[in-house]
Amino acid sequence: MGKSFPPLFPPQASTVAVEVDSLYALLVAITAFFTILVVGVYIYLGFKYARKSEAERPIQVHPPAWLEIAWSVVPLLICVVLFVWGVTLYFKIYTPPKDAITIHVVGKRWMWKIQHMSGAREINELHVPLGVPVRLLITSEDVIHAFSVPAFRIKRDAIPGTMTTTWFNATKTGEFHLFCAEYCGTNHSGMIGKVVVMEKDAYQRWLSGPNAGQPPAVEGARLFEELNCVSCHRNGPTQRGPALGGLYGKTVELKGGGTAVADDSYIRESIVNPTAKIVNGFEPLMPVYLGQLSEEQVNALLAYVRDTLGKEAASKTVAPPATVTDAPGSSTQGTVAKSDSASKGR
Amino acid sequence: MSTPHHDASHHEEEENYLTHETTIQSWLLTKDHKRIALLYLLSITVFFTIGGFFASLIRIELLTPAGDFLTSELYNQAFTSHGVMMIFFFLIPAVPAVLGNFVLPLMVGAKDLAFPRINLASWYIFMAGASCAVLAVLSGGLDTGWTMYPPYSSTYSQSRVTLAVLGVFIAGFASILTGVNFIATVHRMRAPGLTWFRLPLFVWANYATSLVMVLGTPVIAITMVLLGLEHVFGFGFFDPAKGGDPVLFQHLFWFYSHPAVYIMILPAMGVISEIISTFSRQKLFGYSFVAMSSLAIAILGFLVWGHHMFTTSQSPYTGILFSALTFLVAIPSAIKAFNWTATLYKGSVVWETPMLFAFGFMGLFLIGGLTGLFLATMGMDIHLQDTYFVVAHFHYVMVGGGVMGYMGGIHFWWPKITGKMYSQFWSKLSALFIFAGFNFTFFPQFILGYMGMPRRYHSYPDEWQVLNVMSTMGASILAIGYILPGIYLAHSIFFGKKAPRNPWGATGLEWQTSSPPPPHNFHETPIVTTEAYDYQSLPLSETPEKEGGHV
Fold it and tell me: A39-48, B481-490, B540-549: which has the minimum mean pLDDT?
């Protein structure tokens, strides 16, 4: 530091960084224009009409209506442009592409715990491949944190009890700052780390290096048996809950009307607080796992439901098991039961 | 405006509100709005000093990248105490409870506010709340940030959350009482002939502010009660482990705390309207647009709170609505800025000290308001949220706008309040120091924020030191700018030249009575026959004395 005047922009290391900086440049230009305009006119008028005599009683000026309208409408039009661009960019930054790889992030005072789906784990460092969209599923074990990588222009709150999502596609190899941006107590400014962007093959080597471990989906499968999730979520005589094969990403009908997309937040919520959204045709029988499982265990179950079960029976639609079982939920006569026999394997 | 004029020399011998009673009891039990304003002035000056002390601790710590001056615990307490003191106990009461209290009844030609006892009660309630907060700071500190987000504040913080929450809860009632008092006064106590659209814009601004205080403050009170219950008894409103929702707190908190920004800035805008009109001898350009824009800001201010939560789990579709409504607030703000500037057109402008503060307000508030557009733009906010950009933005609005307006108002009405003129030289120097020091302090923080420096950081990466050193240097200049008025204003009380009734040649009714005013403001109820800012009918004798008050 100190060699030259500090830079005005952080490194542009993601696909959205250039667009965010362009929008920023526009906003800076608008700010500079109006500040200089108003302050300039103010100074000009202030000296042009400087009081020459204490007896001056200037004639009152009555503003023309067109002027008031003009300087209301022009800012409004500028705001419309900013609003539309801002909304578009927001959805771009927060909507991961379908082919993104998933990484789980758990904030905890005062560290970031990262888990890759291959099983590699790390703390306060995030290794990612260059040029591959990476989706982060973020939550917190204790207080609210925020996962912030300025070089990627992304930030997302890590909220206990909730799962949030963001994504990026890194465009530069190297190391970049990782911060906790939401105040989280004593060592908030120590909850920092780095994002390491690597070439794809280097990333693959890193995944199988010293940080490697058991993939969360495998751990999830074990928990699925151990917690006996399997007994109710399997088609057959003991089924009391929806079959989970091919569930991920599908739209499910909810009891009492409405639908929900079975995305990561939905599955997470259905594990920790299953009564929040009941699938049509089932009863709220599942025990609440809120506080019973660590965030890592929930993430492992989520990875199993998403990555293993989701792929195994990807062609099946989720429907109320109207004709299948003697489970209490089966009293509802469903109409979409054709696929049930095919999903018996679950 | 016209009113029976009394011979100035006749007034000089008279008792005024400061001299007619002098016992301590006569101050502590006073029902005179002018004395209560002074009680508020003294108290908030103390709280501003405490808040400023913590600000200086923050800036000293940030001189170096390592956290080496304070421990993390102390640093977190320092920025929390700075925020709590400045926001709840200085900025929110500053313009309404001091300047509004003093000037508003005079401006509407009334003897006092509608409920003088309630006015006194509001000060005692305010002091009770402030005492709790100060005690919290002294007895172990508060480390939650002024925003007090759970579950950190409710479950994890070991600091004095209960006491601080109680302080904010109690102080809120003072705010509500002041608001009710102003609303009743403006509705019921206007002088004969003083119709709504003849009211000075300062009255409009305080009226709009009062609506926000009365409608918004109960929500923060409820929120503080919920937080207190959760902290003390472990209720689970905001605790996900008990099925609560931490984001719910943010909704409730910002439902008040965003409008609270308008409690700070709207009355300051009212001050600016008075100053610019007076020192350019022009009726305020677009009077009714400026008056209505105050109401528009007050109403829209209640509908934008979700823009603080674009990076939380708040629905993105909800976010779109909040973004759109936030942009709409820019329009009435722009209308004000353009009309203030246009007021100088074909006017008769003098750059007295209050006018310098008004000019400072214009420059800083413009930057503060325009950088608000960055944060309203959803895709931009993701990168800027919780960084120094936000810190810089709200200091430009609340200090650049709010405090500049307050300083302008203090310098504008000081001759009326004390009956003395202050030094023109030193006050202009102070305005210059504050303007320069402020920009030097906070402009680098915009850049730091865009670089990604998170707020509330005790230590930071080395590459950001240059900008932080600039910021701390600026803060030193700013501190001098704030200390100077303490000296020359105090000096003026004892040694200042006697102020005439109307030193600036202003038109408001407050300038038609003596300086300082008599205990009941007017000897005869003024009768208003013209619109506000009618400089045409200002008598030629109503001219400032050129050498006014140079000591």
Answer: B540-549
Q: Closest-CA residue in chain A for B451?
A: A10
Angstrom distance (rounded) from CA B175 to CA B482: 25
Is the CB of residue B345 less than 8 Å away from at least one CB of chain A? yes
Query: Using a CB-CB distance cutoff of 8 angstroms, which residues of chain A are in contact with residue B345?
Result: 45, 49, 61
Return d(Cα A160, Cα A277) in angstroms, integer.
19
Structure token digits, residue A12: 């542009």
Q: Catalogue the E-assigned strands of A8-48.
A: none
Q: Where are the alpha helices (DSSP H) in B344-456?
A: 353-376, 378-384, 388-395, 404-418, 424-451
Nearest CB partner across the interface for B367, out of A31, A63, A68:
A31
User: Do residues B411 and B279 lie in contact, with contact meaning Cβ atoms separated by under 8 Å?
Assistant: no
Three state DSSP letters for B214-274: HHHHHHHHHHHHHHHHHHHHCCCCCCHHHCCCHHHHHHHHHHHHHHHHHHHHHHHHHHHHH
Using the predicted structure, report yes or no on whether residue B348 has a pLDDT greater than 50.
yes
CA-CA distance, B127 to A9, in Å (whole number)? Answer: 46
Burial of B229 (0-12, 13-18, 19+ CB in 10 A): middle
Contacts of A63 in chain B (CB under 8 A): 285-286, 289, 339, 342
Give strand ranges (E) for chain A.
101-108, 111-116, 121-123, 125-129, 133-140, 145-149, 154-158, 164-169, 174-180, 193-198, 251-253, 259-261
- Measure the CA–CA gap between B215 and B210, rounded to whole angstroms: 8
Please check whether residue B489 is in contact with residue B422, taking contact to mean a CB–CB distance below 8 angstroms.
yes
Closest listed residue to residue A322, CA positions, set A333, A310, A311: A333
d(Cα B211, Cα B259) in Å, to the nearest integer?
A: 10
Is A283 an 8 Å CB contact of chain B? no
Q: Which of B285, B347, B544 sits opposite A54 (nearest CB)?
A: B544
Q: What is the pTM of this model?
A: 0.92
Q: What angle do CA A153, A157, A161 make, to 5 degrees?
A: 155
Amino acid (one-letter) located at B44: I
CB within 8 Å of A268: residues ≥ 6 apart: A139, A163, A298, A302
Q: Chain B residue with minimal CA distance to A291?
A: B241
Supply the DSSP string of B52-101, one letter for each residue. Answer: HHHHHHHHHHTTSSS--SS-HHHHHHHHHHHHHHHIIIIIHHIIIIIIIH
In single-letter form, the type of residue at position B65 comes to: P
Residue of A nearest to B382 (CA): A155
- Of A200, A183, A310, whose CA–CA distance to A245 is shortest? A310
Mean pLDDT score, B381-392: 98
**In Å, what is the CA distance from A208 to each residue of A120, A134, A204?**
7, 18, 7
Enter the tokens of residue A174.
């190297």
Helix (H), strand (E) at residue B202: helix B201-233
* Rounded-to-integer distance, Cα B206 and Cα A59, Å: 29
Chain B nearest C-alpha distance from A310 (Å):
25
pLDDT value at A344 more than 70:
no
User: In A, which residues are within 8 Å of B536 by CB distance?
Assistant: 57, 60
Is B143 an interface residue toward A (CB < 8 Å)?
Answer: yes
Please determine, for the modelled complex, whether the ipTM score is greater than 0.90.
Answer: yes
Interface probe for A, chosen from B300, B373, B446, B545 (most Cβ of A below 10 Å), is B373
Q: CA-CA distances (angstroms) from residue B295 to B64, B270, B452?
A: 45, 12, 36
Most confident of A6-10, B243-247, B364-368: B364-368
pLDDT in tens, A137-191: 999 999 999 999 999 999 999 999 999 999 999 999 999 999 999 999 999 999 9
Structure tokens, A185: 């107590």
Tokens of B194: 């003083």
